[in-house]
Design goal:
The protein is built from six helices and no strands. By secondary structure, the protein is an all-alpha fold. The longest helix has about 40 residues.
């Protein structure tokens, strides 16, 4: 892969590889380890599982909710990538991506160490972090951005995206998956 545009679009592949592990494994992991999860994290459970404490993990729409949340993230990252390519301006994309491997690794390693065993996403977090760092090095070598320019942009972009994700994404993903489940249950034939 030798073009800047190709490298930037490849980041979406890395994102989805990681997210597929979470989508596939999250509910099975939560159901299998529900008691340990409740003991380790009585309030702030990882992966938004606290939203499902009332109904129990067996019957909760964990996979649907994770898929909706990941879909929202994918749309944001895809739009960011698209606008970067269309306008030939990659600083905001780079600023967002530069903290992605660090954030992903930190969050997944923290849960894995607290849990003292496998947690959904840890395998691909490690693999995609290495690939993302390689990707960022390649993109950096193809652009003229300075280190301070990237650092300032990274802080600004990730504060905005982080606020949006924490404030709206988790709650709206849960609300949307609940609405979808209600839609599916309504007037079953």
């Amino acid at each position: 892969m030798s073009t800047l545009e190709g490298l930037v679009w490849f980041s979406l592949v890395l994102f989805m590889l990681h997210e597929f592990e979470e989508i596939i494994m999250l509910k099975a992991w939560a159901v299998r380890h529900s008691e340990k999860i409740r003991q380790l994290w009585p309030k702030g459970k990882p992966f938004g599982l606290h939203f499902f404490d009332d109904v129990g993990y067996d019957s909760a729409p964990i996979t649907e909710t994770a898929s909706v949340g990941i879909g929202m993230q994918f749309v944001l990252i895809a739009l960011l990538t698209l606008f970067s390519v269309l306008f030939d301006y990659y600083l905001i994309w780079f600023a967002f991506m530069v903290l992605t491997p660090v954030t992903s690794l930190f969050l997944h390693l923290r849960v894995t160490f607290q849990f003292k065993a496998y947690s959904p996403g840890i395998i691909t977090a490690v693999l995609t972090a290495a690939a993302t760092i390689w990707l960022l090095i390649k993109v950096y070598s193809m652009t003229a951005y300075g280190v301070w320019e990237i650092v300032i942009a990274a802080v600004a972009v990730n504060v905005v995206f982080g606020f949006f994700a924490m404030k709206y994404m988790h709650k709206s993903a849960t609300a949307l998956s609940t609405r979808l489940r209600n839609y599916a249950d309504r007037n079953k034939e």
